[in-house]
Amino acid sequence: MSRARVARRIAAGAAYGGGSIGLLGVAAVGLLLTEMQLAKRSVGNGTAPLPPVSDGLYGRSFGTEGPLRLALLGDSTAAGQGVRRAGQTPGALLASGLAAVAERPVVLRNVALSGARSDDLERQVSLLLAQPVGVPDVCVIMIGANDVTHRMPPTESVRHLAAAVRRLRTAGAEVVVGTCPDLGTIEPVYQPLRWLARRASRQLAAAQTIVVVEQGARTVSLGDLLGPEFAANPREMFGVDNFHPSAEGYATAAMAVLPTLCASLGVWPETDRLEPARRENILPVAKAAAEAAKEAGTEVTGARAPWALLKHRRRRRLPVAGDAEAVKEEPADTTPSTETPAN
Predict the structure, then answer these.
(1) Which of 83, 117, 147, 153 has its CA 20 to 30 A from that of 325?
(2) Nearest 5°: CA angle at 246, between 192 and 262?
(3) Bridge-based pairing state of the strands 328-329 and 316-317
(4) Pairwise CA distance, residues 329 & 129, whole Å
(5) How far is CA 111 from the centre of its chain?
(6) ∠ CA 254-258-260 to the nearest 5 degrees?
(7) Which residues belong to the active site?
(8) What is the pLDDT of residues 19-54, one digit of tens each?
(9) Which among 156, 69, 136, 73 is positioned nearest to 106, based on CA atoms?
(10) Are the C-beta atoms of residues 152 and 117 closer than 8 Å to each other?
């Protein structure tokens, strides 16, 4: 995809979202970067445990033959930085959830790297595709926060993401992208930089959605990681450094990604049919991307160009990582609100 085309797509998404990414300005984003780095150092000395290794076989009660292959790529959120046990990482939670829904064992391979930006995805994809076990059945990518804090131009960011998704799709893998999280939820970041962080995060998330859907993959808006729980309970949802999610935070995020992950493999009990009662719709891709960026947990998948399907799938409670017990449906009142709560 050419740089000019990427730029046009981002501009379209920004227009639906109510402004241009360029309006942030170099100086404002530079100030944001400085504030983010100070915030990370101001709480818990900016440190968090190294991500535990979560690679392995999940859902052993379903046997060991013919496992589904799941891979995670991205940054510290995908790696699971902030928790100490492998079973608390998003990879382990998603692998256990997928095993329970599909009633098959799942082999997890996590190549995510803490601190990674989108330009590291090329290396991660190459590492993954070089594995002798073969191409994963499905890949989950979580990336974008470091692109914002390190001032990577959005056109460059989404160009790297699109290339990674295209390589994985060409190799035969399904792909689900958790879009850029809302950096405005980080507690030590104050106004007006919180507003700038939120704006930059959402606009990058919308741009990511546009290019991912064009590659035939699906996105899930991670938003404020995810929904009102983080705004209402930041002390519980963030880890010891108040920057990375806690075990509860990762569980909340994984619970929102799991339905789309399973749907990509055709094992989710819901179809892709529209449910108007759940505010689902078919919209132009750019508008769907902007709408999804506003509401965490929203899925966007391609319908027929230039249209996209906006879904709000029902969440399910996740089994304990490594346990293949049945996945239970969340109560109806956990559906994300249409309004993003103030922080």
Answers:
(1) 83
(2) 105
(3) antiparallel
(4) 34
(5) 15
(6) 130
(7) 76, 241, 244
(8) 444 444 545 555 555 555 555 554 444 455 578 899
(9) 69
(10) yes
